[in-house]
Design goal:
The chain has 357 residues and is an alpha/beta fold. The protein has eleven helices and 13 strands. α1 links the parallel β1 and β2. α1 crosses α7, α4 packs parallel to α5 and α8 crosses α10. The longest helix is centred in the first third of the chain and has 24 residues. Nicotinamide-adenine-dinucleotide binds next to α1, α4 and β5.
Length: 357
């Protein structure tokens, strides 16, 4: 099998590549990592596999249709796993244009390039296109509502989730109209190694270690359903190998936590890791102005994926968070250059209303 993975220098794409190239229970595919190398990309995330003979990398922008077509023609994939995206909600509030360009136009271009390549080699029916999407397309749950599943109506509320919802609709249209065998996964919040330090969990670990204020948006009561990134990678590969064309799969960790609970637990784990008395770092928690349009709660019912993909989450949240804190403590050489050169930990996403593309 030859698999083109987009966004493989990012947090989840790199976990997919590490899984695809090290899973001894399955045939190892030839992979091509298509990544433009934005601020969110690091080669460190694929260092464990990038030396392998069946790994290749192409520095291509998915919004550049011509370059994509040449790249796929040259690689001749049997499948595309599409993860490349602008992924941070706060950045989408400050500058939505890039989200439309990559997430909407880029998804259109990779769909079209995949379709043309499959048709060129007369393998359309056997081809697979896995589109990695998010639970945020379903909007915001009240505290007592039942979790999202595959039947939930779309109701995106941020520029990021609107761009992902649009991309999901394009994927569905390429299946219905052109017969491209597409599979969509909608997953909840991931956490784990190589998570860019703009996101809640890595940002709080790094700030807590440094003894800096820990900015919790609003009241801290917003709830997310957390999934360890390697479990998500297994679900995506499960969808590639066992998913039904035209189907969607909701993926989640069964681990709903309020943001305040998450940050408090991180404080205690960092206290422990640093050998300090547990509880001290909770003093750093600072409630700050809320994110505009902040979704209250996400939660996923993943029973269809568990039934049909033979998948289930394997790392529980307490264990996963401990592993993650330990990983950040041990891997300062990965994240410190990112703070020095790309993002210093400042507040993002407060410029709603300021005109900026
Ligand atoms: P990330 O921001 O860590 O990585 C994105 C990668 O895509 C980067 O390596 C970047 O260089 C690449 N990229 C961005 N624009 C590109 C372009 N125009 N051309 C080529 N490459 C480009 O993102 P992530 O957290 O790993 O998310 C991956 C996918 O999973 C996204 O589609 C996201 O919507 C989805 N998702 C993320 C989560 C989560 O919790 N992080 C949950 C559910 C779904
Ligand atoms: O649900 C899946 C989505 O999860 C993915 O599609 C996105 O790509 C991914 O970034 C993530 O989106 P969130 O907005 O939920 O993640 P983030 O880490 O930005 O924020 C998690 C929660 O923590 C959210 O309620 C906002 C809050 N938060 C975040 C930051 C960065 C804070 O309270 N303080 C912070 O400093």
């Amino acid at each position: 099998m030859r698999v083109a993975v987009t966004g493989g220098l990012g947090f989840i794409g790199s976990a997919v590549l590490r899984h695809l190239l090290s899973d001894i229970d399955e045939d190892t595919p030839e992979v091509l990592n298509i990544d433009r190398g934005t601020y969110a990309a690091t080669t460190g995330a694929v260092a464990a596999v990038s030396h392998l003979a069946n790994y290749r990398q192409a520095n291509v922008d998915i919004a550049d249709g011509e370059a994509l077509r040449t790249t796929l023609e040259d690689f001749e994939p049997d499948a595309v796993v599409h993860l490349a995206a602008e992924s941070h909600v706060d950045r989408s509030i400050d500058g939505p244009g890039e989200f439309v360009r990559t997430n909407v136009v880029g998804t259109f271009e990779i769909l079209q390039a995949a379709r043309l390549e499959a048709e060129r080699r007369s393998i359309l029916d056997q081809f697979r296109f896995v589109h990695v999407s998010t639970d945020e397309v379903f909007g915001s749950l009240t505290m007592d509502a039942k979790p999202f599943d595959e039947t939930t109506a779309y109701d995106p509320r941020s520029p990021y989730s609107a761009s992902k919802a649009a991309s999901d609709h394009f994927v569905r249209a390429w299946h219905e109209t052109y017969g491209l065998p597409t599979i969509i996964t909608n997953c909840s919040n991931n956490y784990g190694p190589f998570h860019f330090p703009e996101k809640l969990i890595p940002l709080m670990i790094i700030k807590a270690r440094a003894g800096q204020p820990l900015p919790v948006y609003g009241t801290g009561d917003n709830v997310r359903d957390w999934l360890y990134v390697e479990d998500h990678a297994r679900a995506i590969v499960g969808a590639l190998r066992r998913g039904q064309p035209g189907e969607t799969y909701a993926i989640g960790g069964n681990a709903e936590r309020s943001n305040l609970e998450v940050v408090e637990t991180i404080c205690d784990l960092v206290d422990e890791a640093e050998g300090d008395s547990v509880g001290g770092r909770r003093e750093l928690i600072t409630f700050v102005k809320d994110r505009p349009g902040h979704d209250l709660r996400y939660a996923i019912d993943s029973s269809k994926a568990q039934r049909e993909l033979g998948w289930k989450p394997s790392v529980d949240f307490t264990e996963g968070l401990r592993r993650t804190v330990d990983w950040y403590v041990a891997n300062e050489s990965w994240w410190q250059p990112l703070l020095d050169e790309r993002y210093a930990g400042e507040r993002l996403g407060t410029s709603a209303g300021e005109a900026r593309r």
